[in-house]
Amino acid sequence: MTVTLYGIKNCDTVKKARKWLEQAGIDYRFVDHRADGLDPELLAHWLDVLGWEQVLNKRGTTYRTLSDADKASLGPDTAAALLLAHPAMIKRPLLNIDGELHLGFKPELYARLFNQ
């Protein structure tokens, strides 16, 4: 099983997810998409599979600092460029288990995903 967790290392929710994975003994790779960069093709895949509305985090401070014009112009054609420019606006964590994508962290979801 290949497990990759994407997020930002100082995000509290990402910290909780990483701690859960470590305590459950799950071997995973962590990618900090703000520090390590984000592959445009990978982001395009996430947007295709999950939809831009799900991937975009509208509750974070980065989104709130966008201009009203940027917010109004958001859509399927503009989301990728905005998320590449501001990777902190990607909802996190994003968990990839053998190609299956899951957004967010809830202990009960992770327990179900890993049969814990």
Automatic annotation (TrEMBL):
PROSITE patterns: ARSC
CDD domains found in the cross-reference section: ArsC_Yffb (cd03035)
InterPro entries listed in its UniProt record: Arsenate_reductase-like, Thioredoxin-like_sf, Tscrpt_reg_Spx/MgsR
Domain of life: Bacteria
Pfam families: ArsC
Family: Belongs to the ArsC family.
Protein name: ArsC family reductase
Record organism: Oceanimonas pelagia
